[in-house]
Design a protein that fits this description.
270 residues; globular
């Protein structure tokens, strides 16, 4: 089983390599994002199974045909993934990396996992969303708790560790394969995200509305909104959010951040 602590240690390895050339940092960023991608998209169990097959000496099972062609961006991403694997393969062989072999191997496995499963497009879209500073990534959206619970119980492989939206509120997907437990506990990722944005200064609204209905109609009419922007509703600042992977749009009052403190924004190397 992939220990979440191992993934955290892998991020620490990347952080210790950060004071490098800009070209090398680009490869480190790719490795960093690969680990977050697996976690944020709820593929922890798939990744565990992938690693176990590799440890057993079995060839990795291709769940989705690897892309051999595609857009220029996809081809470029494939090339960068290959160069990043070369970088960490070299690090794995360095004598001073002996104590870090486990985390480095986890990084290599993460890069291999994305390549073998052909998730170039999904990974590229995820990186674009994260780079734009959008709200915490979510893999599904439901209008009611009943809809979400029905989806979770029917799902053959629930996306454990991922976020889902229920009436625009964030919830964790929890799936314990050993016990069969499936839960959707509420989390406060959005509140901390809004608190982080508030640290950057007063919101500057790009549009003002007299009612929530008018603001929602405007947001729904936008062909391709930004992942986030500020609007004003009756003088109150709201975050207008867009989740391109879901085609979902939502309005969140900044007041949700009241009472939440953000101590540090260093969850990812900058």
């Amino acid at each position: 089983m992939t220990d979440p602590l191992l993934l955290s240690e892998a991020q620490e390895v990347i952080g210790r390599q950060w004071a490098q050339s800009p070209e090398r940092r680009q490869l480190l960023e790719l490795a960093r994002d690969a680990l977050f991608f697996i976690w944020d998209t709820g593929q922890r169990h798939h990744f565990e199974d992938f690693r176990e097959r590799l440890k057993a000496g079995a060839p990795p099972r291709v769940e989705e045909a690897p892309a051999t062609s595609g857009t220029r961006e996809q081809v470029s991403l494939q090339e960068r993934l290959s160069r990043t694997q070369e970088l960490f393969t070299k690090l794995l062989d360095e004598p001073e990396s002996t104590a870090e072999r486990g985390p480095i191997q986890a990084i290599l496995n993460a890069l291999q996992f994305i390549s073998v499963t052909g998730q170039y497009s999904a990974f590229g879209d995820y990186r674009e969303y994260v780079a734009a500073g959008g709200p915490p990534y979510a893999v599904a959206s439901f209008a009611t708790r009943e809809e979400a619970e029905a989806w979770l119980q029917r799902h053959p492989h629930p996306p454990d560790s991922a976020n889902v939206l229920i009436a625009n509120a964030y919830h964790d997907v929890v799936h314990d394969r050993a016990t069969g437990t499936r839960r959707l506990p509420r989390n406060r990722d959005l509140e901390y995200y809004l608190a982080e944005l508030r640290k950057g200064g007063p919101p500057v609204a790009i549009a003002s509305f007299s009612s929530r209905q008018d603001a929602d109609a405007w947001l729904q009419s936008q062909p391709k909104p930004a992942s986030w922007t500020w609007v004003s509703i009756a003088g109150v600042p709201y975050l207008a959010a867009y989740y391109p992977n879901l085609g979902h749009r939502a309005l969140y009052p900044l007041s949700l951040a009241n009472g939440y403190q953000v101590e540090s924004s260093e969850s990812r190397p900058q």
